């Protein structure tokens, strides 16, 4: 699963903006398979932790109501070129993925 | 007296046994059970229950400075980009609710001290409805909403 998060961080005017695109089916557990009529089991990201220089900036708690292949953008005060930002997601099955970027 | 205690002991061990079996069978991944994910709020089918469970209040107050950016018309309800911004000081949490969804609570963003009250994500919308944003500060919860017309619902199979 490695390498499936695209993350870009950019500092401007004393603020850093981070944009990330994850790869995930985000199944709600409410949909039914059209052919079999069986419920498709829930499989979605429940928590996204965003860090700057190892410190948590934001934690996002999600339901299956977030779109497939989730997009997330957020901002924080400060941040200088070269600082590391990190994003980690964990889903309801306990699968997890992490990506980092250096602020541009 | 002895009998009563014996009953309690039996009940207790039965309950513990059931959880143990569930974990063992992989029905409950231990990691998921331990996470702080607010299950009751996310599984609630009405907004009041979801907010009460998550924030302790059933609704936010109008009047806070909250800006919601979302399309007037979303052709595909499966992908609706929503931005929430606020100029309120000391924002601790931002919440996105899709009022027409089966489970209306979509996301809760817990902001650390360095975070700015500005988030963007893409959500699923079942039908034309208000997108509600709530912003929680140290002592208050504010709300704002914006209607998004959905051409094709994004939750069905």
Features:
heterodimer; A: 104 residues; mainly beta; Immunoglobulin-like; three-stranded antiparallel beta sheet; B: 157 residues; alpha+beta; 2 domains; five-stranded mixed beta sheet; 4 helices; 27% helix
Q: How many strand units of chain A?
A: 7
User: Based on the structure given, which CATH architecture of the largest domain in chain B is correct?
Assistant: Sandwich
Number of strands of chain B: 8
Helix content of chain A: under 10%
- Tally the helices of chain B: 4
Question: Can you give the mean pLDDT of chain A?
Answer: 95
The ordered string of helix (H) and strand (E) elements of chain A is EEEEEEE
> Which word captures the global form of chain A?
elongated
Give the CATH H-level superfamily of the largest domain in chain B.
SoxY domain
Multimerization state: heterodimer
Here the CATH topology of the largest domain in chain B equals Immunoglobulin-like
Largest sheet of chain A: 4 strands, antiparallel
Strand % of chain A is over 45%
Strand content of chain B: 35-45%
Give helix % range of chain B: 25-40%
Report the span from N to C terminus of chain B: 56 Å
Structural class of chain B: alpha+beta
Instruction: State the end-to-end distance of chain A.
Output: 25 Å
Helix/strand-derived category of chain A reads mainly beta
Largest sheet of chain B: 5 strands, mixed
Rg value of chain A: 16 Å
């Amino acid at each position: 699963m490695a390498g499936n998060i695209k993350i870009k961080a950019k500092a401007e005017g004393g603020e850093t903006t981070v944009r990330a695109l994850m790869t995930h089916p985000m199944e709600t557990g409410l949909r039914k398979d059209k052919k079999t009529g069986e419920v498709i089991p829930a499989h979605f990201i429940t928590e996204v932790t965003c860090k700057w220089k190892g410190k948590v900036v934001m934690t996002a708690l999600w339901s299956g109501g977030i779109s497939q292949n989730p997009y997330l953008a957020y901002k924080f005060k400060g941040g200088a070129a070269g600082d590391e930002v990190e994003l980690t997601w964990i889903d309801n099955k306990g699968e997890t993925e992490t990506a980092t970027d250096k602020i541009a | 007296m002895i009998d009563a205690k014996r009953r309690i002991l039996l009940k207790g061990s039965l309950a513990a046994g059931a959880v143990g079996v569930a974990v063992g069978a992989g029905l409950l991944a231990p990691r998921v059970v331990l996470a702080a994910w607010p299950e009751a709020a996310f599984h609630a089918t009405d907004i009041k229950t979801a907010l009460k469970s998550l924030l302790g209040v059933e609704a936010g107050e109008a009047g806070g400075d909250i800006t919601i950016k979302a399309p007037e018309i979303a052709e595909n309800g499966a992908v609706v980009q929503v931005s929430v911004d606020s100029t309120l000081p000391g924002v601790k949490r931002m919440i996105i609710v899709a009022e027409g969804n089966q489970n209306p609570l979509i996301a809760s963003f817990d902001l650390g001290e360095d975070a700015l009250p500005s988030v963007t994500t893409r959500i699923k919308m079942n039908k034309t409805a208000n997108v509600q944003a709530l912003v929680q500060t140290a002592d208050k919860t504010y709300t704002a909403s914006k209607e998004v017309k959905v051409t094709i619902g994004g939750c069905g199979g």
